[in-house]
Amino acid sequence: YENLKNTYELSDKIPRLEPNPFLYTRIKSKLEEYEKQKNKYRTYPGILQPVFISLMLIIAVLSGIKLGSLDKINSDKSLYVSHTTEYYFNDLAQENAEVLLLND
């Protein structure tokens, strides 16, 4: 309690600064000036992005059509698949595990 009381007493001794009534208007005017400078270098910001996205979609669709037509060319050729039979030997069917363990 004493520490808090001392802190309040010290803070009351510090001179108070009066707020500047024009601070908000200065900050607002600086921000508006910055926005004007930033927008000055943009020529067509509203139309470039949709045009770019549309071009990318058209390119993607045409690429998909082209890849799909390549599959038709390859599917026209007859494919011959040869089946091979592989024999797997199961040694456990020939000799029981009990026999193997008992012989040791």
Describe the structure.
By secondary structure, the protein is mostly helical. It has helices at residues 2-13, 23-40, 45-76, 91-94, 97-102. The termini are far apart. The model has no long low-confidence stretch (mean pLDDT 77).
Helix and strand element order: HHHHH
Rounded mean pLDDT is 77
Number of beta-strand segments: 0
End-to-end CA span: 87 Å
The shape is flat
- Output the radius of gyration: 42 Å
Report the β-strand fraction as a percent range: under 5%
List unreliable stretches of 5+ residues.
Answer: none
Q: Assign the structural class, choosing from mainly alpha, mainly beta, alpha/beta, alpha+beta, or little secondary structure.
A: mainly alpha
Number of helices: 5
Main sheet summary = none
> Helix proportion of residues, in percent?
55-70%
